[in-house]
Design brief:
The chain is of the alpha+beta class and 385 residues long. The chain is built from ten helices and seven strands. The strands form two sheets. The chain has a five-stranded mixed sheet. It has a two-stranded antiparallel ribbon with strand order 1-2.
Length: 385
Amino acid sequence: MKRPLRGDIAIAVVAAIAAAFQILIAYSASVSEEIPDPTVIAVAWLHAVISVLLIGVALYLRTNPLFCASATLVLLGVWSAASISVLPTNMGYPLALLLAPWALYCLARSHKVQQRAIIVVSVLAAIGSVISPFMWRLSDSGGIEYRSGEDRFTWLALHWITILALVLLGLRRKALEAARHDAIQRSREREHLRIASEIHDVLAHSLTLIRMQAAAGMFDEASAKASLETIHKVSGEGIAEVRMIVNALRSGNVDVPQTMRLHDVVERFREAGLYIDCEFDADTHGYSPIVQLALHRVLTETLTNALKHQGVGTRVTLRINELEDRIELRATSRVSANSGQRFASSGGFGLEGIKERCTALGGDFEFKLDQNTASTYAWLPKDPQ
């Protein structure tokens, strides 16, 4: 059995105080010479026993709402029936009655209980309100009598309105909690996609360079050592970038490593076989880390696709310009018509991730393919909101 919740413990303490008071009433009735009727004394002790049982019910009301709410209504029903059996003697209005509305509210807001069960218990509570202690009033003779006329229907309507309001309030609270839970789940799914996108961007870049260098080393023994050195360097940088991503996702702080400088990225792809004509009219070091990281991802994805799909020898024209409120990247990669290479893009996960990243920062990303020419355009705000 699950442990009781802190709020239920507090309510159970109040119920225990009420039970102690009820036991005191029963004991006083037992020793009093003014109450000769043993039935009244028996009912007083029955009320005391019910009060004690309600302590346990209150303790687990939110842990096991269906059973405890049903038990609350049954015990209070027995309480009322016992009070009716000694009419017109006034047995008072028990504090334990306040547990009934709380039980209905907890039942309605619980995700463990089906709506059909909530309706059934609520209807039974509405029917049981006919014998609620509040349906009696003090008579002129000092006893109590059942309410009559408009007074009866007014109090009955108050019971039903209270039951309906509590159930609707509980259902609304449950709906809000469900919506919040769904929002958290969607946020986690987006975070998983973000992690996958980050890892894809890093590994696609690093593995493409490693593959090209490995192929060069296999077919040219003279360049094998240089290829291995490049593979060692690129793999180390890839590991560093993956660690950076993990740390950033854990802490929420982005720390751009030196290996992610744009000029270094261009040089690595030149070493891998791309002919890159680049012009940087922007000092990206002054930008926020998240913009630097996004710009790095756009550049690496663009050059990775050119090397991967258009091959070694592809000519790339690259321009990065700083405007008043944004930074723009334009890239065009092409191969000769007789080279036999084609850009076999599948609309990949990387391109989609890059577009989502740019859009999330308030920028945009476009990719166009025309036979042997691929064009990329991206812009990012200097100060994303």
